[in-house]
Amino acid sequence: MADNHSKEVRSMNMSHIRSINSKPEETVRKFLFSKGLRYRKNVKNMPGKPDIVLRKYKTVVFVNGCFWHRHECEKFHWPLSNTEYWHNKINNNAERDKRNITELQNKGWNVLVIWECELKKRNREVSLNNLYKKIISNSSSST
């Protein structure tokens, strides 16, 4: 299937995709803040620049988009055009994610990933509460 947009329109669309402060990230941050958790955002000197770093709990949270990070869910579909580029791009992203998670874990960090699909209305409350419980459960081991 061919792209429905011209190169210029596609380029403009792609340039508007955020790498930080995305809507899913903001949703997670607002929820955690409302629960009294304080965190740092996008810490550049840590592997993978985690979206949320909770030092008190020695926990980092990545808020991953299903497409960009190859989540095996209904939201992820391989593009039908320029397939070689997209397979390389997305597979490289997933491999880099694995390396960053392993490096953080080796440094003693608890790594949590919440996916974009988990933040859709039907799943949001349960997913966010589960995330909160996982973070808090590290409290006894880190204090």
Structure notes:
By secondary structure, the chain is an alpha+beta fold. The chain has a single domain, classed as VSR Endonuclease (Endonuclease, Chain A). Helices cover 44% and strands 12% of the residues. It has helices spanning 7-15, 23-34, 83-106, 124-137, 139-142, and strands at 40-41, 52-54, 59-64, 110-115. A 4-stranded mixed beta sheet has the order 1-2-3-4, with helices on both faces.
Looking at this protein, list some descriptive labels.
single chain; alpha+beta; Endonuclease, Chain A; 4-stranded mixed β-sheet
Layout of SSEs?
Elements: H1 7-15, H2 23-34, E1 40-41, E2 52-54, E3 59-64, H3 83-106, E4 110-115, H4 124-137, H5 139-142
Parallel strand pairs: 3-4
Antiparallel strand pairs: 1-2, 2-3
Task: State the major sheet.
Answer: 4 strands, mixed
Report the CATH topology name.
Endonuclease, Chain A
Gross morphology is globular
CATH superfamily: VSR Endonuclease
Biggest sheet strand order reads 1-2-3-4
Number of domains: 1
InterPro entries: DNA_mismatch_endonuc_vsr (IPR004603), Restrct_endonuc-II-like (IPR011335)
EC number: 3.1.-.-
Family: Belongs to the vsr family.
Function: May nick specific sequences that contain T:G mispairs resulting from m5C-deamination.
Question: Can you summarize this structure?
Answer:
Pfam families: Vsr. With 143 residues, the protein is of the alpha+beta class.
